[in-house]
Amino acid sequence: MAIQLYNPFEEMHFDMQTCFLTGQTLPANNEPVSVFPEWVLNRYNLSDKTFKMLDEGASVQYKNLKVPYAVNVIEQIAKLDAEIEKAFIAGYEEVAKIPEERLFQWMAKLMIGVLFEDLRISQQKLARLGEPLRLSTFLKARFQKLHWMLQSLVVPMEFKGLKPWSIRIFKVKYSNDLFNYRDETNNLNFSLSMNDFGIVACLQDNGEVGKKFDELTNRIGSQTLHPIQFEELCGRFIYANYLLTSYATYNVSLTDSKVLVESNPLVTKDGSPLFDYWDDNMYGQVLANYWKPWGLTMKEIIQFPNPPISFIENDFNDEITDIEKINQPY
Question: What is the DSSP string of 59-79?
């Protein structure tokens, strides 16, 4: 019998009695698992701090962000978290060695966990009004694809051809030990910075955003970046992902022994560009959001007719700006 994949988005099923990854019915004494691993909560004193949810006005303490999983899923999550913890605490050199599939699983685990709580809160709120939770067909499909890729934690799964994601890791100099996590659910964008590194990822672009910036990121290589440079890279990746005019599709084969996932190249029907027009004003707004810690305003970021300022690239040549030449605090 072919392996089956679970899809909670078909029936919009989000309760604490069902394993969110496999659909298994859970025993009454089952303990849900923290979305953010204990080592993160402890190291950064996050347990009692609040995490802002998508639902307007809703926030949840980090320690209460939990997802129901079956025992076999919990075992695999614990193994994954242990691998990630070891590398993340060691720093950039070890993080760069993590197989991309494992990094993807860990990022998807966080994003799916936050999404579960977001949808559960919205569903309960609407139920009190006698209304069902509805998602667009597009979002249902996008979340479903991320969810069944995460099932690679417990189901033999092989990713063939193009990688479904773009993941880039950078060496970053921070003056404080921090855990700076961002996700953007609609486009499945992810960024994280801590210790001496930063990660930016688009989890369902079939590698196109990463390819768009390959020339730049190859020039950066393992050069140490200022935090404001890393945040600028995040802005570029996230805005470019928003501009994609084609959506990821996959050929999925369910066999008795494993699931085969083949990413299709992103194409447009009429041969138009894969990325929509790059609007400097829109991009400037994205940068302003990422540069909030430095207090930079739109007026400072864009001074017409010049393009948005950049802390990454030198104005006069293609060299990456040395962090010692950046007059901004760490």
Answer: EEEGGG-EE---HHHHHHHHH
β-bridge partners, 259: 157, 254
Q: Are strands 197-202 and 189-194 parallel, antiparallel or unpaired?
A: antiparallel
Quickly state the pLDDT bin for 268 (edges 50, 70, 90).
confident
Cα dist. 293→29, 224, 231, 301, 327 in Å? 43, 20, 10, 14, 14
Token pair recorded at residue 131: 């209304």
Neighbours of 269 (CB within 10 A): 7
Question: pLDDT of 127-172, one tens digit each?
Answer: 999 999 999 999 999 999 999 999 999 999 999 989 999 999 999 9
5 closest CA partner among 189, 262, 260, 265: 260
232 is written with which tokens?
Answer: 């600028």
Domain ranges of the chain: 33-325
